Amino acid sequence: MTRDELRLILLDELGRLAPEVDLASLDEQSDLREALELDSISFLNFMTVLDMRLGVVVPEADYPMLYSLSGALDYLERHLPDRRN
Amino acid sequence: MSEFRMPSLGADMEAGTLVEWLKKPGDQVAPGDVVAVVETQKGAIEIEIFEGGIVERLIAKVGETLPVGSPLAIIAGSQPSSVAQAAHSAPEGQAERPAPPPVAAVTETAATAQRGIRASPAARKLAAEHHVDLEALTGSGPEGAIVYVDVENWLHAAARQPASPPGTSPPVRRERAAMRGAIGATMARAKREIPHYYLQHTFEFDRALDWLARTNAALGPDRRLVPGALLVKALALACRQFADFNGYWRDGHFEASRAVNVGTAISIPGGGLVAPAIMEADRLELPAVMERLRDLVNRVRVGRYRGSELTGATVTLSSLGERGVEGLWPIINPPQVAIVGAGTPVERPWIRDGRVVPAVTLMLTLAADHRVSDGHRGARFLAAIAAKLQEPERL
Asked: What is the pLDDT of residue B171?
């Protein structure tokens, strides 16, 4: 899976978590929790869909690496199961 | 024969607009069934009926704005028992037991309204919780019965679709200004009428957070807990011991509540605030508290709650979460008599056993009604909550 494909998936899921936010203007470096007003439960929902949709289980200790969209992309590229293409 | 009327969904609600009927003439209704959706300043609220019977006639029309107390429908007969029995056959531990004191009729029947379809009690409960229409599902159980996993699979599939959850209509757009007005009116009344007193207590929160981290390390994200779940449970347990903080001030006196229904203040993205209740939180295991909390947060995001959730809280928790500031001084939500605030945990130098050490601390605050209790009692209440958070494994 390319980074662009991954980005589309993440934006799709984030759009569902925060339907009222315009993701087109999302800065990839910004803190998603601020930009999308994600509380700890909404962020946990984000981690849950990464598990369900991509098969990546993010340990709690790694959460800070996924606070921004670019950080999440970096992390997922490293941890995505090989079976994906 | 009785009239189903526009309920009051808050101290300052004068009228509501009917946006959807979920029952039609001829339908049987049981106590606790959601029969209609009404829009108020707080969003679209699912309103429940507290008598059983048959819907004889719908009086109110979709789109009509009606004052509290206006008749909405005529209910004939009263035969809630068969439905109630079906619900009681649910396996032990699966049965839902919401029973807010001001609306005594809510029972297990709330979870089971869709009759004539083969489905297991657990599947019905899950479907009811997520507002899934069982008719939309295909069963994989005996004789095609819908079982728990069918509903679960369906929910997973639905979660991947951009549309709103099945069985619900698209969220009604909330009027932010109206909501701000409603919050302002309620809070002004609270500040005017309730003689608040305030207390604060700061304590080490490391233990709870360490326990949480260890617990969560063994769990997938879908089952992990957040600190808020610990706070809800600790507050609920403390309310059992300190009954004078749990209940309502009504008609010049305090009515303690047996049930501990913890209202949880949740901010609405884009503005506004609601505090729907987790019913009988003191009787729920932590994972169940977490599940309810998650469900409420998710529904607040799309603006869909039940009337009993908005009016049923007997005490409230206002937690700033992980990205707030150190403390807050909340205002009591009438007719309740107490509200507990939890700030954002902060790391700071702390003295433990005579040495300065780094520690994560939490500031808890209490605003309580001086007509019911005083500071000495409040201090013990607040200390009891903190003590419970020092032993998270017992929550």
From this structure: 39
Q: C-alpha distances in angstroms, B76 versus B30, B194, B268, B370?
A: 12, 42, 39, 45
Domain region containing A43: 3-19+30-79
Å from B78 to nearest chain A CA?
A: 41
Specify the 3-state DSSP secondary structure of B98: coil
Segment B126-149, tens digit of pLDDT: 777 676 767 667 776 655 667 666
- In a mutational test of the A interface, the residue from B160, B225, B301 whose CB has the highest number of chain A CBs within 10 Å is B301
- At B267 the three-state DSSP class reads strand
DSSP, residue by residue, A23-60: GGG--TTSBHHHHTT--HHHHHHHHHHIIIII-----G
Residue B46 contacts residue B34 (beta carbons within 8 Å): yes
Q: Which of A53-67, B9-23, B71-85 has the lowest mean pLDDT?
A: B71-85
Asked if the Cβ–Cβ distance from B221 to A37 is below 8 Å, we say: no
- Which of B216, B217, B294 is opposite residue A41, by nearest beta carbon? B294
Return the CATH number at A37.
1.10.1200.10
* CA neighbor of B31 nearest in space, from B108, B86, B136: B108
Residue B218 confidence (pLDDT): 94
Domain C-terminal end among B56, B79, B102: B79
